[in-house]
What we know:
By secondary structure, this protein is an alpha+beta fold.
Amino acid sequence: MHEDGNDGGRPVESDVSGNGVDRSATPGGAEREFLSLERELTVFLRRARASQGEMAREVHPDLESAAYGLLVRLEECGRQRATELAAYIGVGKATMSRQLRALEELGLVAREPDPADGRAWLVHLTDEGRGRVTSVREARRARYVSQLAHWDHNEVAELARLLHQLNRGMEK
């Protein structure tokens, strides 16, 4: 916190962008850190949604934006039951069934009987799906490397660590 002589003597703090924030004027008594967090996450999520739509179209022109995350999960974790995917993504069984049907029709995923339970099915990427997702993810990582080239590698690692911590906390 720093004092700023242009505020009539009240303590003013700098937010993430360097703008002065009068803590006493924050709505509902919310701390400036959480207001800054909310603002920055809003911008970040808006950009992430747009980026996810672009990546989905790069995988396949008819791929729904929301289904891209399913493909990434399957690439990272391998075969999974639809119920596991639905729980991870946070959607219901009907929504998951619809998305998986669409991905099957595009030739990106396939189902096979679960050897541990003959009533259940395991979903996996097809060779075509794996190739397309890998290609898009490699291009995305290359963009990150380019966009963050001026960052120290330790800063990138710290950002990844903090985002992981945030995501883990939101799972609870």
